[in-house]
Amino acid sequence: MGFGTRDSGLGAHTLARSRTYVAVYGALMVATAVTVGASALHLTMLATAGVALAIAATKASLVAAYFMHLKWETRIVRGAVALALFLFVALMGLVVASAADQVGTVL
Q1: CA distances from 79 to 41, 73, 85, 107 (A)
Q2: Is residue 4 part of a domain?
């Protein structure tokens, strides 16, 4: 196969990757439907928030792993993303604790 031919030799790989993207997209749509369904349940506010956050974390993980290609990155890149996520969660925890202290409620 010379220069300018249509087949680059990656046909099977591209097809497999496309199927993976479609499967992840389907999983994201199912998770969205589950989120909507969970909001229709009459759970406590804390339980609803917990379910919604768990589903959102799952969806974010899927997007990061497949659409942002973190699944195929090196260990150092994944470590940098994990560190950023940890720092984000820690800072948000401090914000929530500070807000709860201002209101006078206990977490």
Answers
A1: 37, 10, 10, 30
A2: no
Extract the tokens encoding 39: 């909001």
Same domain (yes/no): 52, 16: yes
Q: Is 57 found in the same domain as 14?
A: yes
Q: Evaluate whether 38 touches 51 at the Cβ level (below 8 Å).
A: yes
Q: What is the DSSP string of the chain?
A: --TT-S--S-HHHHHHHHHHHHHHHHHHHHHHHHHHHHHHS---HHHHHHHHHHHHHHHHHHIIIIIS-GGGS-HHHHHHHHHHHHHHHHHHHHHHHHHHHHHT---
pTM of the model: 0.70
My answer on whether 28 and 77 are in the same domain is no
Range of the domain at 95: 73-107
Tokens of 36: 């909507």
Model confidence at 1, pLDDT cuts 50, 70, 90, reads very low
